[in-house]
Specification:
It is a single chain. By secondary structure, the protein is α/β, with parallel strands linked by helices. Helices cover about 40% and strands about 15% of the residues. It is built from 14 helices and eight strands. It has helices at about 45-50, 80-90, 105-115, 140-145, 150-155, 160-170, 170-180, 215-230, 230-235, 240-245, 265-270, 275-280, 300, 305-320; strands spanning about 5-15, 15-25, 30, 55-60, 95-100, 120-125, 260-265, 285-290. An eight-stranded mixed β-sheet has the order 1-2-4-3-5-6-7-8. The longest helix is centred in the C-terminal third of the chain and has 16 residues, at about 305-320.
Length: about 325
């Protein structure tokens, strides 16, 4: 599927090639997607940002869509992913960029600002607040926290298991996953799962698609993941410990202009309430910090007009 005014090409960075979708001319704005998404998850943002005088570029992150898909699990650690994004800036002909991310793209965006303050002049994130490096190793802590329960990140950790479940019926799996995490679903009412359960068996098929997700949208995502498979995307979850080890001694504070936005019904905000409350202590120029009522996890797709308003307000704050 094409999107009006958006072109695509492959760009070499960090030893691989990423497919990028782009529009407009001007200062560079990079939009980083999350799981299980695509450049296409930013479809509603291209025109408004381009019309505001920016070159807006959304890559398929490594492992996704038409981008390269290294086989090794460790190739998907956040330090390597960050290098992909930092390599894009000069590859696209720029010295600096504004970087905005959603879901997995959010910690990548935060990390670019944290580690590369000279090249990332401003940063924004949707859904996932900034968290400084944990003092404890992530996976043992996660296993202890969710002992005796189903937790999707633990389920995703074992190679091959989640891939098989998604790929058995990709369209149905994506439909269930996307609708489950949207604002229409009351996550507190979902049946509890045990540690040996799978992801989708107990989730009912949605009777209809929400207004923000059309049949064409679902067809696009299904086509992308049917071609690319789920191994690369799931590998992001398998690198918590490696990324933690590789970032020992990381800076703690982000000083560039920053914004954050998320839905009030986003499960990430529910889980990361403590990090959300602490974020202004670590992001010291947090120009905008807004929760959007009634929407869930897919911020820029569920509330495109409000998300665009926030992004454009932020760009005006940064560039005047």
């Amino acid at each position: 599927m094409t999107w009006p005014g958006v072109s695509q090409r492959r760009v070499a960075t960090n030893g691989i090639e990423l497919n990028v979708a782009e529009a407009g001319k001007g200062p560079l704005v990079l939009l980083l997607h999350g799981f299980p998404e695509s450049w296409y998850s930013w479809r509603h943002q291209f025109k408004p940002i381009a019309d505001a005088g920016y070159h807006v570029v959304a890559p398929d992150m490594r492992g996704y869509g038409k981008s390269d898909k290294p086989h090794a699990i460790e190739a998907y650690n956040q330090v390597e992913v960050r290098k992909d994004i930092m390599g894009l800036i000069p590859a696209l002909g720029y010295e600096s960029a504004i970087v905005i991310g959603h879901d997995w793209g959010a910690p990548t965006a935060w990390a670019t600002a944290l580690h590369h303050p000279d090249q990332v002049r401003a940063v924004g994130a949707l859904s996932v607040p900034f968290m400084p490096r944990s003092p404890v190793q992530p996976m043992p802590a996660m296993r202890e926290m969710f002992k005796g329960q189903f937790f999707y990140q633990l389920y995703f950790f074992e190679p091959g298991i989640a891939e098989a479940e998604f790929e058995a019926d990709m369209r149905m799996a994506l439909k269930k996953f996307l609708v489950m995490a949207g604002g229409e679903t009351d996550l507190t009412q979902l049946a509890p799962k045990g540690p040996d359960d799978d992801m989708f068996s107990s989730l009912p098929e949605p009777e209809s698609l929400p207004g923000w997700l059309s049949e064409d949208d679902l067809d696009f995502y299904t086509g992308e993941f049917s071609r690319s498979g789920m191994r690369g995307p799931l590998n992001y979850y398998r690198n918590h410990d490696l990324a933690w080890k590789l970032t020992e001694g990381a800076p703690t504070f982000i000083d560039q202009p920053a914004f954050f936005a998320a839905g009030t019904n986003d499960g990430v905000i529910m889980m990361a309430a403590e990090a959300y409350q602490a974020m202004p202590s670590f992001v010291r120029d947090l120009c905008i910090n807004e929760l959007i009522p009634g929407i869930g996890h897919w911020t820029q797709q569920e509330a495109p007009e409000k998300t665009n308003e926030i992004i454009l307000r932020f760009l005006k704050e940064v560039d005047g």
